[in-house]
Design a protein that fits this description.
The protein is of the alpha+beta class and about 425 residues long. It has 16 helices and 9 strands. It has helices at about 5, 20-30, 30-35, 35-45, 50-55, 75-90, 90-100, 100-110, 110-120, 235-240, 250-275, 290-325, 335-360, 375-385, 390-405, 410-415; strands at about 135-140, 145-150, 160, 165-170, 175-180, 180-185, 190, 205-215, 220.
Length: about 425
């Protein structure tokens, strides 16, 4: 591909669109998303009509580079969209946010040629990614052969590409971790989503790649757990925006917490509806919202949710500060900073889970019936709580290792090996 072809610019659909206007579009969709929750859960994903509304609103382009037809808004705006969509339907927000957020990964770590192909001639892009390297990339003439099967590919139904984690077999005896960019025409989505407790409408289907041939530029070696940022990234150099020189762990978990915060507010909305329409069971029978116990539960939930919201929005701001510091010649965004942000986000998720569990158990047994929103929110929150990245107890040791200067021993220590003796700083 010639430099001229690669360097083309893709027009932005609405050049004057502001972050606030995009957020207001998400809020305006809430009644429709609430009305279609049952349908989305039965189908396993939101409707094509809702998908087209998301496209028109520009949500998929929020973090996409302006050069390739995106709005290049900041992370705080993106997380606000996740919150507002989840307040209408948590599983729909999970599908949208987790799928479209990989525009940041493509815009950051891949070179210009891969970005030009991925974002395409009109800037239409969305791609699931799966962290576990459940497939391989093997060198072939002019590129790579990608094969494998990946589960839980959230966002798959409406995606244009797939960005799986792979083992790069350039040296078969020394496999390296990497990411591939595979167009929709070269992978198959399985009809295997929905038989799970919650997030049934998140479109987290499995994807099979039977033998995709992609160009050399479409597979990159990268350690998602600890990305090397010295000197910036291909994306930060190409776009001149430090947002594209960030790390992965805290960004990806903030996506999940934005969905969880919206879910928590949705549970509060439903709880308030319940206590305003139901009375206490024993004399003196009064509307539940007038009873001090229900007032207390509601107040606790509001405080917990507001704290979690501030955590995720602050994480977006701090992430951007770390990226800017690195771009301005200071110290690049460090692994310890990424892990500390991730830990704070995990505790935000814990607050949401505890609030939703409290609302569910105090809402009354009728709220636990099939088809009731409170039951759905409890099930959806349970899926997050069981997610590997939500296990804050498991992250604690890793943060300590990095803080103590033992990060070079992470892999051996996690396997249970004893770290070498001596000064850990050397």
């Amino acid at each position: 591909m010639s430099t001229r072809a690669i360097s083309r610019s893709v027009p932005v659909p609405e050049p004057n669109l502001t972050p606030d206007e995009m957020i207001q579009r998400a809020i305006a969709l809430r009644p429709r998303l609430l009305a279609e929750q049952d349908e989305a859960e039965r189908r396993g994903v939101h409707s094509e009509a809702i998908h087209q509304e998301f496209r028109k609103a520009g949500f998929y382009r929020c973090l996409q580079p302006r050069r390739f037809g995106g709005y290049e808004f900041d992370l705080k705006t993106y997380y606000r969209i996740g919150i507002e969509i989840a307040r209408g339907c948590p599983s729909t927000s999970w599908c949208l946010i987790v799928g479209s957020g990989h525009a940041l990964m493509l815009g950051s770590y891949f070179g210009e040629e891969a970005q030009a192909e991925g974002f395409g001639p009109v800037g239409d892009f969305s791609a699931p990614s799966v962290a576990a390297p459940s497939g391989t990339a093997t060198p072939v003439d002019g590129g790579w052969l990608v094969k494998g099967k990946w589960g839980y590919a959230s966002g798959a139904p409406y995606s244009t590409h797939f960005m799986p984690s792979v083992l790069i077999l350039e040296k078969p005896d020394e496999p390296r971790a990497g990411i591939a960019l595979v167009p929709r025409s070269q992978w198959k989505m399985l009809d295997d989503w929905g038989a799970i407790l919650g997030m049934k409408g998140s479109g987290s289907n499995s994807i099979v790649v039977e033998g995709a041939r992609v160009p050399k530029s479409h597979v990159i070696p990268i350690d998602m757990l600890n990305i090397e940022l010295a000197g910036g990234t291909p994306g930060s150099r190409l776009h001149g925006n430090p947002m594209y020189a960030g790390r992965c762990l805290s960004f990806f978990h903030a996506e999940l917490i934005s969905v969880m915060v919206g879910l928590g507010y949705a549970a509060i909305d439903e709880y308030e509806k319940i206590i305003r329409t139901k009375s206490t069971l024993y004399p003196p029978m009064i509307p539940r919202y007038l009873h001090p116990d229900y007032q207390r539960f509601l107040g606790l939930a509001l405080g917990m949710m507001n704290a979690a919201k501030r955590l995720v929005l602050n994480a977006g701001e701090v992430y951007m500060e770390y990226c800017r510091r690195g771009a301005e010649g200071g110290e690049p965004f460090t692994l310890e900073e990424d892990l500390e942000l991730l830990a704070s986000l995990e505790h935000g998720g814990r607050l949401v889970w505890e609030a939703v569990e409290m609302l569910f158990r105090t809402a009354g047994s009728s709220a636990a019936k099939d088809g009731e929103r409170m039951q759905r929110y409890y099930r959806d929150a349970s899926i997050y709580r069981g997610h590997l990245s939500a296990q804050y107890e498991m992250l604690a040791q890793r943060i300590a290792l990095v803080h103590l200067g033992l990060d070079h021993d992470i892999s051996t220590t996690e396997r249970g090996s004893r770290p070498p003796a001596g000064d850990p700083k050397k």
